[in-house]
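step 4 of 6: structure.
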Amino acid sequence: MTPLLDITNLHVRYQGKDILKGLSLTLNAGEVHAIMGPNGSGKSTLSLTLAGREGYAVTQGGARYRGKNLLDMEPEERAAEGVFLGFQHPVDIPGVSTMNFLKTSVNAVRRARGEAEHDAVGFLKLVREKAAALGVGEDMLKRSLNRDFSGGEKKRCEILQMALLEPRLCLLDETDSGLDIDALKTVAGGINALRAPHRGMLLITHYQRLLGHVRPDKIHVLARGRIVETGGPELAEELEASGYARFLKAA
Amino acid sequence: MVIAAEAIPPYLRHARTGPRGAREAALRRLHRTGLPHPKMEDWRYTNLAAIAQKDWRRAPAERNPPSPPSLAGDDACARLVFVNGRHAAAASSNHFPRGLHVSPLDESQVAQDRPFESWHDLNTALFENGLWIRLDAGTVIEKPLEIVFCSTHPAQPSAHHARLLLELGEKARLNIVENHASEPGGAARLVTGITQTRLAAGARLCKAGMFRQETADQALLHESVAIAEAASCDYTLLNFGGGMLRQSLEMVHAGKAASSSLRAFNLADAAHIDLLTLVRHEARETRSGQDIRALARNRGRAVFQGRIHVARDAQKTKARQMHRGLLLSAGAEIDARPGLEIYADDVQCSHGSTCGDLDEEALFYMQSRGIRRDAAEALLVSAFAADLLEEAQDLPLRARLCALLAERLCA
Ligand SMILES: Nc1ncnc2c1ncn2[C@@H]1O[C@H](COP(=O)(O)OP(=O)(O)OP(=O)(O)O)[C@@H](O)[C@H]1O
Ligand SMILES: [Mg+2]
């Protein structure tokens, strides 16, 4: 079976600095993996590289998505092919209402996938339904995207977009940070609702708490630019207890 | 008055004035001072030399003026049309809502000891068929009054000059949509326009002005708004350029708690737009806000000069000015020159200016959501403008103006 995502020996340089130095990871459809690691270890670099942000130079290795070279594609092509990045820091776009943005985005992706665009009424209904489940209020849909949204509101809005875009590969970069206890449950519920045999997820997180709600199949530790350890859910507990010291010391 | 023919600058050659009065005084003064020149503080960016040298003819009076496009349609309470600077009664409404009076403007009403800028004298000396618009105290009119200025296609370089006096009585409220448009083609046009607005205590004016000129047009426009106690002026300007537009707006907060808010969008698409605002706070507890945006592309140039003046007695004043520029091509230019003169000590004044390209992070965010790069750019550009109008909830014909702006941006 072709893996959903196959990263081999990935080296990424950003702003003249080598950040990823030989990262390898395989994610199959139906699986959920978590990536944990110290601040600055390159987790966001990995997610942005996979999503196609300019300036992240791949100097060695590569990444294949469903057998295709992911790194060759434009960011919008990746989205159309089913790659979704939930940003650690979602960007605000003054002047574009959340609802308008959702419609533009979903219809762009549907067009690219050869599916019919949503009609206005049907789309409104769909968004309201999904938004309500994630605690995204009607007023947020009217406001400019992410503008003056609280940290938690931004993260809910990311998951709302994910639910509407129905991606195959979900890269969630610290979607749990900034969420209060109830919001974490709501967002975890939204993530769990999307777990499916044809879909895979990479959850970047610092906290065991999210992983209590969304049980991962594997946990990877990213340190010094590569995956230094892979284990089961119990690894999260060990990290919680003893930190990253032993990975940083190892040469 | 007789001026020796050879001494008359070309742009004044067609001037004919009566023997006395404001027009003659203006003409004589202008003859002495000449038009503004780039050595003057406020005229660094706009050079009128080409205008001063041209032999402008008086724009023809059109017997059958073209019917200019209406923005408001049936939503207007009344419509006033100016063709080539002159009020065209035949094309205008002849019935007005109760309390709204429209009458010819007499030259004695426009006398000025010292104009704000010397070109005002050109307008004072030469305007024809100006209008005086008055709204009685306590009158509230919801439907906007539409004022249309249109210029016809001239066979040779021609100039025209429009003049308005607008007065709102105490607690009167009026919405105005002003629309300037030119017929495309023809020789160069010089357009000057001056509006003097007076808002009595507690009055409220909400105005949207839209300027769509052609590349052959050179326009000099000025509006001065005097705001009495607790009166307010909400002003939205949409400038779509053309050849050259120099626009100045003076907001005088003359009475306690007078307030104003100004939103301006300058689209310098291969055009030269120079906007000057002078916001004066002369009384206590006055408020002003300015949100100015400029977009320059295709060798366009957008200039914003904004001065805020707070007099010594204007304690507890709040004045805010923000300028944002979006520079979309290498040959385009945006200049911003804010200025604060504050003589009171208990005030809150702020100003800021930013200028840049489209936000890469926002573009990437949109692309990562499946929106193509070019569509993402177009969306960001229209958002830059839409964001300005988002706050303007009282703007007359808001939806139509937003649509027009979006259409213009995508052109
Ligand atoms: N604009 C920048 N200029 C220079 N270095 C940068 C820049 N942005 C990130 N870096 C560096 O790249 C490295 C990896 O950053 P990255 O954001 O990928 O870390 P991370 O693992 O996501 O951290 P965190 O857990 O704090 O989110 C860090 O050392 C960081 O300092
Ligand atoms: Mg990060």
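step 5 of 6: annotate
 - Confidence is low (pLDDT under 50) at residues 1-6 of chain B.
 - The first strand of chain B starts at residue 57 and ends at 58.
step 6 of 6: archive
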